[in-house]
Amino acid sequence: RAGNPVSTGQLLVQLDDADFIQERAIARQQVADIESQLASLSLEQQAADDRLTLSEEEVAIAERDYERIQEAAARDAAPPREVDQLRQVLIAKQSALITARQQADQLRTQRSQLMARQGREEANLELAQQRIDRCRITSPLDGFIESVDVKIGESLISGARVARVVDPTLIEVPLRLSAAVRSELGIGDTVSLFATGSTAQSWTGSVSRIAPE
Fold this sequence. Notes:
Radius of gyration: 39 Å
Shape: elongated
Structural class: alpha+beta
Strand content: 5-15%
Largest sheet: 3 strands, antiparallel
Order of helices and strands: EEHHEEEEE
Helix content: 40-55%
Strand order of the largest sheet: 1-4-5
Number of helices: 2
Number of strands: 7
């Protein structure tokens, strides 16, 4: 109500934030879902990396066996059939290694995509929270309500004034002065104001800003 005292941060107007609260809940759910997927993906990634390590070791063993059988065949100490068999084993192990490496790379790609989605959803969550915060219009200073420009149930647009709060302990007085004295004025200079009329009152203040014109 006009005339009521208010303090800095005191709530003046509460806008309807139901839609924004719903947006925040959806964004939180999305973030939680992505975090769950990332946790599950981390386990799959660890298993895939372990399979890749084992496949690399199996290929290394098959390569050494194949090299030894080739050396033996060169000395006529091994039949060609054994050489072909170990060659087939090596090819199978190499194929398994390619598959294991491909699966590990795919999981890393999925993780990168999920982390990108997580960043977007966290940004949406932050934006929804900002919208909720902006629905609370509080007093920017200690003072008194001079006027309230909105009514309950009224629709508002961005930038509309909802209330006017004044601090009577600090008054700003605009003065129009000649351009000739511009060079003699500066921010922070002391100014004395004298009342005209029957009351002989005076006030001491300072220059807070100077308009360009």
